Structures are given as C-alpha cells and as structure tokens.
Amino acid sequence: MDLKEIQDLIRFVSKSGVTEVELEKDGFKIVIKSDRPAEQIAYVQQAPVMMAPPVQAAPVAAPAAAAPAAEAPVAAADSGVPIKSPMIGTFYRSAGPDKEAFVKVGDKVEKGQVVCIIEAMKLFNEIESEVSGTIVKILVDNANPVEYDQPLFLVNPA
Asked: Is the predicted pLDDT of residue 150 greater than 80, yes or no?
C-alpha cells in the first residue's frame, strides 16, 4: 500500500463520519481511528396502525333470548362455502381500475379460477377459488383491507 492510498483512506474516514476503519491488504494492516464521537442515529419504531375490520351485515349484540331467532335469517342468507384470504393485504376485485371484475354475484367459478387480487407489500397476488360453484355473495368491498383467513366470497358448491 502506498502513501497516496493511505491519504485517500484518511480523507474517506474524515468525510464519511465513521470512527474507525481497518484494512488489511497484501500482508499490510492499517487501522485508522477518528477521535470525534460517532454520529448518533436514532431509530424510531412506528406504532402499529390499527385498522377497523370491514363492516359486514351482521346483527349487533342481541339479547340472549332473541339471539337464536336473529341468527337464523343471517345464516340462511349467508349460506355457502367461503373463499378466505390467505394473507393480509388490500382486496381488489379486478386487475385494474378500468378492468372488469374477475367475478360477480351469480358467476360460475371453477376450482383454481382467479377470483380477486390481494396486494401485500407492493406485490399483487392472484387468489384462486378453492371450490367450484356459483358466487352467492361478495363479502368485501373493492380496495378495502383484509385480514388473514377473512372470508372474501361465498360460493354455492356445484
């Protein structure tokens, strides 16, 4: 290592703000230490964002005596096999704002057919139907957040 390389290394250490550099090259070892204190970098952890679950048509806490009667109509209206979200993300019914929805209520779907997209960490994941049948109900509005294992669609199996 020649004098020019050592001077360049010293300039680098002084400009970069590091406090110590150790370099070993061809059996030659050099350690350059700065006497100034290292810059303090503060890492701030962002508080987790709590999202409200999507609003679904379900009765709010009913009295215990009226609960069985109140649940019966909801269960009848929501009959079907759910297609659930395999991840946390944002639910999209179509591939783009100007594109047609993958499925609508009344559409027939086959096992493996793409029914929606869930965006997670800037990746768009196609969600496929796990059952063949007819879409009975879409449980999530477009561009709303979804949770893991949240029902997205109800399918009447064929």
From this structure: yes
CATH architecture group of domain 77-157: Beta Barrel (2.40)
Q: Are strands 114-120 and 89-92 parallel, antiparallel or unpaired?
A: antiparallel
pTM: 0.51
Residue boundaries of the structural domains of the chain: 3-33, 77-157
Paired tokens of 54: 């999507």
DSSP 154: E
Does residue 80 come out as left (phi exceeding 0), alpha (psi in the -120 to 50 range) or beta?
left
| Surface-to-core class of residue 155, CB atoms within 10 Å of its CB (0-12 exposed, 13-18 middle, 19+ buried) | buried
Q: Burial level of 49, CB count in 10 A (0-12/13-18/19+)?
A: exposed
Share of the chain above pLDDT 70, in %: 66
Q: What is the pLDDT of residues 66-109, one digit of tens each?
A: 444 444 444 445 678 999 999 999 999 999 889 999 999 999 99
